[in-house]
Amino acid sequence: MRVLIFAALLAMGTTQAASSSTSLSGVSSASSYVPWSLADNKTSLAIIESQLTMCTYSKVEECIQDPKLILELGSLYRAPGYCIAMDSAYVNITTTSAAIPNRYYPTSVEEAYDAGFSNKFSEWSDTNREQFEVDCPLLYNETIALGEDMLCCTESQYTGLSTQVRMIPGLCSACKENLRNIFCQFTCNPNNSMFLDINEVRIMSGDDEHEGQIFPAVEEATYYVGKDWIRDIYDFCEDDSSFSLLCNPNQDCTDGYGLMEYMGKYAFNSIGSPEQINVTTMDKFSEEIQTTEFCHCHYANETNCISPMNNKMTSCVGVCGSLCAVSSDDTRTYTEACYGAESASSSGSSSATGSGSDSTWAELNEYLATNIPETDWAPLNYFLVIFGGITGVLIIVGFIVATLRERKYNAVDRRSGTPQVIGPDTPDFHGVASAMAGSTGYLSFLDDLMTKKLRLWAAFVSKDSRPKKIIPMVLVVVVVCAVGLYNIDIETDPIKLWVSTSSTSYEERQHYGDIFNPFYRSEQIILVPKDGGNIYRSSILKEAIRVQNVAANVTYTSDDGGTTVALDDICWKATGTGCTVNSITQYFQNNMEHFEFYEKYGLELEHFSNCLYSPTTSDVALCTELKNALDDGDSLPSSMSDCPCLSAFGSPMNLYNTYLGGFPDGAESNYTLFLDSIAFVSSYLNYNYADDDKNEPAIKWEREYIKTMKKEAESNSVFNVYFYAEISVQDE
């Protein structure tokens, strides 16, 4: 599976197609005019059609293998200023947001311009020229900034490309710039014939806006890059927060090769790359091929040979902070990407475009350092030493005094036994006291003191008729105190139990709650398999969806049947569509029909794991596999046409540690470990109001929800079901 925004980028200058009958996103209406198509020469078209074979990826008999051998498709010449493809192949696309393949058209940049293609940069609109410098800074600095004016992409191609590259996620600017560079070079580099090869083209009819025209759409391409390039593209992005969305460890994405293979799989007329992109390096070929096909280092300006793309990327060192996996003292060796390269240039990882970042901040760091006041900590140190010394002396003295006091009382106890306490109102307890003294030892000074005082109090209370007077008096006091219970207000609000209502934080909470309403009411379900196993099992996932649907379908009905409250009536709709239900099973949209459709073809677990690694997009690769595996008469439900990973309410489920429980240590850095989790955590968010009366419908629903989940917990044979509602604490 590939990430939506990146997969679409892999087309050489792709644009988005809304439908076959509408204008293409990013392609102006002027694109209905194209300078050339195969239909312009019927004789050449007939020769081409006579050589069509089965397409490797689209599985139709419309392809030409190794098109550079077919003269009717044009003559390929590898040299600076020559393109291997130009403009888009305006073919019929039926899937919304699917990318359009590039058109195989070997030519020079000047000949393309003379033929009518809009590939002259200086003639582009001011907006596109400015945006190109932002979107493709590395390519801009290598070409336009040095005086070149011709590119291998048209303005309409770039418009579609720009729309896509601006959607690249992540927080590391260096990583984003490098990823953009891949597609900018691939699409617009005026020398792309030197590092690209088209292995297969598909002869296709134009869409409704280009009726009667025929285009050689690229089916498969090879992108030659240097080993330094393939190393850096991975290293400079590895620790970016969104890199896991691009590089799926489930598909052996552990280096630059895996990253590019993962992003370049064929997905025509779907969300993904409309052509297969194979990224490779010179060392993958035999010595003979390296000698004959690749440019030699000792021949300057060599042509008709392959010169892999190997421009230095922007280093993340000093730019992305903790999002950079490369050490600040890392030293990288760079070697020319040509045959016979012997000498290597040693350079710090920051020698690329981002190299000046540390020096950029040096002046600011010095200024900040001068503003840090110097503090003399000597007085504090003296105080701590004196205070500690006095405290230590007091502890020692106290210990000595306590020890001596104990010895004194022990000596008295040994000489005379337990002293008698006889007062004017004390009966003769001499015999009992003597017996107690003989049977119990001396415990401590405090114990001895308490014993004496309580003995005196007991003797006073029990003498003569005093018990008859004292007991009623005590009862009267107890009754008077108990009457005060009438005025007790039992607090059930957990907030007030923990926070003083006079505190600043509580008052601020109330103030903002009155303005914006309090935080959402939350209901939660925790599902733990009774067999102790992990959640990554088909039967477990299916049952989890069923239990959550039981909760989602709860409806409160009043005794007279006049009032009903369903979840949809009270829930928070974050995206304005469905209720916000945060759960890992939203990879199936918590829809049993979706799950059972994947299950029918044995793809439910693969879809789940793919979405775990890329929760923001559709499962493109698996969707293609699923479509190819459909039984006769079977079709994908319209609600899962692109095998979405997004939730039913349109939000990505990527906060794994809030949707899963009992996952192993290290799971947050290695998402594969989340599959070993032993609990589902599902949360429902409902509206909350400062006015308690407005919360009554939600409270009624919550109490009905509690009743329903109690029954489910008792009857469920798969899960130990634990649940919670906003009203739970107050009701308890």
Automatic annotation (TrEMBL):
Q: Hey, what's the signal peptide range on this chain?
A: 1-19
Q: Where is the NPC1 middle luminal domain?
A: 510-726
- UniProt protein name: Uncharacterized protein
* Residues in Niemann-Pick C1 N-terminal domain copies: 122-329
**Keywords from the UniProt entry:** Membrane, Signal, Transmembrane, Transmembrane helix
Q: Which organism is it from?
A: Phytophthora nicotianae
**What coarse category fits the chief subcellular location reported for this protein?**
membrane
Subcellular localization: Membrane
GO molecular-function terms, A-Z: sterol binding
Q: Name one GO biological process term.
A: sterol transport
TM helices/strands, residue ranges: 382-404, 470-488
What is the membrane topology noted in the UniProt record heading this document? Multi-pass membrane protein
Q: A Gene Ontology CC term for this entry?
A: membrane
